Amino acid sequence: MTLAPVHIENDRPSRIGWRLPPFYCPFPRDLRHPEAEEIEARCVKWLDAYGIYSDATERAWGLATRAADLAARTVPFGEPEALVLYAEWLYWAFAADDWHDSAAPSAGAAAAIAEHGARLARTVEAPGSALLPPGPRTEALEDLAGRTRAMLTPVQLHRFTHGIREWTSGAAWETANAARGVMPSLDQFAAARLCSLGTRFLLSWCDVANGIDVPADVLYSAPVRALTEAAGFVVSCDNDVFSYNKDDHLVPWEQNVVNVLAGQRGRTPAEALPAVSALRDRTMVFFVRLRDQLARRGDEQLRRHLVAVEHWIAGNIAYQSRAPRYASPRNRNSLPVEGASYDISYADAPCDPSTEPPPVPALAWWWQQLDA
Q1: Which of 13, 51, 53, 228 could form a disulfide with 58 if both were Cys (CB 3.0 to 4.6 A apart)?
Q2: What is the DSSP letter of 23?
Q3: pLDDT score for 12
């Protein structure tokens, strides 16, 4: 089997190729919510009602994110109403992310993202804040914010808005680096990527949709924070590989784990891919060890949370391999190609089975949470 046909209008070759390394994922795979199609239909109706997309082309690329499929695969057993709201947030966030990517890198752009993030989080927290400019996206956001406040508990809402602030601060950091022409070191990148990925923004919905309520003193304890960050790092590595060809037209080069390792080691992006897989798989080995440790000691709510994080990791791989956003990227196609996908494979064992922390100080503290 090969990559599904993709109409390449820009003949620039991929720096890493279209055949991706195998993915080590020792969790149930290809799970999908039974109401996924209905959830997607409701989301599309909502998007069209608010006129999120300015024209037919923007709408086609917006729907090519397949955000409803992301929700359905990362929360395969969730409550449908919560999943609809989660998926609508994802569509909105993808639109915001694309706006961030299209902005010319400058100090002004970084400041604008930081300011917008503060306004966005406050809009979710406080009804009637009127902090964002009028328009379809703001109207849609006000709707999302009102329904989110009604659905989430105060603790869940705080967790979600904290995730928004992390996500936008990470985006501003990346934009500031690009404006200065700076490719961060691996340690700097690893510390900030957990924010720009939106790890806590996303995982908060996994618990909400699954009806999971882990007490704050457990959720924010050092071992569970380490587990959350490790999961986010695995997902960010996968995302950086799947989205590489989507962003390889950017100048300066996109800040992702492939380019960071390539620059740090004096390699081409293709030559850096094995190092990316090794770092990612070593983190996955750690995640499994810490998950098992927490499961032995935790109550039912924590154990359910651990399973939800597993579904998030596995669901992201399945989703990203099938989304036209990645498999028929906009920098090579005038419109998304229906059915475009990556023909991925799974590894039975990690390519780096080491149980020692990597030489990355920003990550090494995770391993300190393991029992001796």
Answers
A1: 53
A2: E
A3: 75
Model pLDDT, residue 107: 59
Among residues 249, 233, 243, 97, the alpha carbon closest in space to that of 175 is found at: 97
Q: Give the Cα separation of 44 and 336 in Å (integer).
A: 16
Half-sphere exposure in the Cβ direction for 24 (13 Å, CA):
22
**pLDDT for position 156:** 94
DSSP structural state of residue 355: -
Contact 76, 354 (CB under 8 A): no
Cα separation, 191 vs 186, in Å, equals 9
Neighbours of 49 (CB within 10 A): 12
What number of CA atoms fall less than 13 Å from residue 262's CA on the CB side? 17
For the residues of 152-214, what is the DSSP string, one character each?
S-HHHHHHHHHHHHHHHHHHHHHHHHHHHT----HHHHHHHHHHHTTHHHHHHHHHHHHT---
Give CA–CA dist 165/305, Å, rounded: 22
Dihedral class, residue 66 (left if φ above 0, else alpha if ψ from -120 to 50, else beta): left
Amino acid sitting at position 252: P
Give me the residues of the chain with pLDDT under 70, please. 1-11, 99-107, 372
Q: Is the peptide bond before 21 cis (omega within 30 degrees of 0)?
A: no
Q: What residues contact residue 182 under an 8 Å CB cut-off, 6+ apart?
A: none
Nearest-5° Cα angle at 189, 183 to 191: 155
pLDDT, residue 4, reads 35
Q: Can you give the pLDDT at residue 102? A: 52
The pLDDT of residue 124: 86
Quick one: pLDDT at residue 113?
Answer: 84
Residues 6+ apart with CB under 8 A from 46: 88, 140
Among 70, 78, 90, which residue's Cα sits nearest to residue 198?
90
Q: What is the pLDDT of residue 101?
A: 53
Joined together, the tokens standing for residue 152 give 């989430």
Q: Write the DSSP string, 288-342.
A: HHHHHHHHHH--HHHHHHHHHHHHHHHHHHHHHHH-HHHHS-TTT-SSPPTT---
Q: Which pLDDT does position 222 carry in this prediction? A: 97
